[in-house]
Known about the structure:
The chain is of the alpha+beta class. It has 16 helices and 14 strands. The protein has 5 domains: 36 residues, Arc Repressor Mutant, subunit A; 44 residues; 168 residues, Ribonuclease H-like superfamily/Ribonuclease H (Nucleotidyltransferase, domain 5, 2-Layer Sandwich); 64 residues, no CATH class; 73 residues, no CATH class. The strands form 4 sheets. It has a 5-stranded mixed sheet with strand order 3-2-1-4-7. A 4-stranded antiparallel sheet has the order 8-11-12-13, with no helix packed on it. A 3-stranded mixed sheet has the order 9-10-14, with no helix packed on it. The relative contact order is 0.06.
Amino acid sequence: MISPETREAILALFEKGSGIRTISRTLKLSKNTVRRVVRGETREAPRRSSRYQELNPLICELYRLCRGNVVRIQELLHERSGRLIPYSTLTRIVRELDLRDGKEAHRAGIYTFAPGQEMQHDTSPHDVVIGEKRVKAQCAGLVLAFSRKLFIQYYPAFTRFEAKCFLRAAFLFMEGACPRCTIDNTSVIVAFGSGPEAEIAPEMEHFGRIYGVKFIAHRIGHADRKARIERNFSYAERNFLVGRTFSGWKDLNEQARKWCVEVANRKVKRSLGMSPEEAYVLEKPRLIPLPVHVPPVYQTLERIVDVAGYVAVDTNRYSVPERLVGKKVEVHKTEDGVRVFFKHREVASHPRLIDKRETRATAKGHHPPLNRTKAHAGPSKEERMLREKNSLLDEYVEELKKRSRGRGVRQMRRLLELLRTYPEEAFKKALKEASHYGLYDLTRLEQMILSRVAGEFFKLDDED
């Protein structure tokens, strides 16, 4: 089959008087092909029907069932019909059946940036395995628009506080900043409004002024305006996270930084013709230098120490010295720590519980035990005073202690009181009888003693 352009060239040369042989040599075609075109006998070959044509109704049904997921359609087709259609063939069939009802694609434009002109920031949720547990983490990223140099970090949640911590770390990683930072319309940085009319939160606007940065939100629905960072989220998810597990959030972010340095920023970009690290050499002189002093990011909170000796930060509680119960203290929350101040003096410092909720952190020495540290060892003072007087009393004390809680201090004290209060002879007779019958109720023992001293030690009235 020859193309329409070749057919037109043959007819044009024939009309100008060129012979069959000349046309054949000029266009490098056989003479029979030229003759068929001149006689008008050539026509397009009929299109061969697909060998999967009988499956078209089932494909249409599965497309609606699978919501357009061609991979799942392929699996169900194999289960129901026993025929495994190659993925590329199945996507072609879906296009030919015109099943996709999305909007018509339009030609995309290109954004170009000069060195040091713009950087882009955004976040994206990723599934991360931390300590053999799959958790949802927020991946925060910042990229220089010219050199494509990338920096990413992960957080359990991304609030305005985490945004400032991340941006500070990113500016330090880049060793400078661009005067413009394109963001989406997230409420983390935007106070209200959207797009060019968006008002940046005063807290974030002040933070940007420290580094000479102005935040600009793109129009809603125009996420391609910050495509430099959008593409990198997919890159991190399919390259950095694949096959990696992490012992904790600190380990995760250390490996993310290492991946940025050794992999992402050293890979040659086709659009650049070089790696981001090489392009960064051209961009670095155009960046705004960091301030002489890069201030730390912390949040100041005022708290009253509760009756248990803790202050609450977010959903967790941190211990302070017991002497400050009921006092007002100032708490500084940093990215990885919590510091407590009382009258401008630091009284407590804790690692911040980042991925925990309703958890208490207690520092050693803050809370002395409410009870004794440990039970007294050995016999009590009362027991020692009772023993070694006679063998009968020693046996009774031993049996009484077995039937008492702990060291039996209360029982020993009561028995010692009976010994000191009543005559020795009456006490011994009652103790011998109680031991014989296994009576270790001290109230009963006292009654037995009283029955023996009636009329001798006490003056008791006769019963009428």
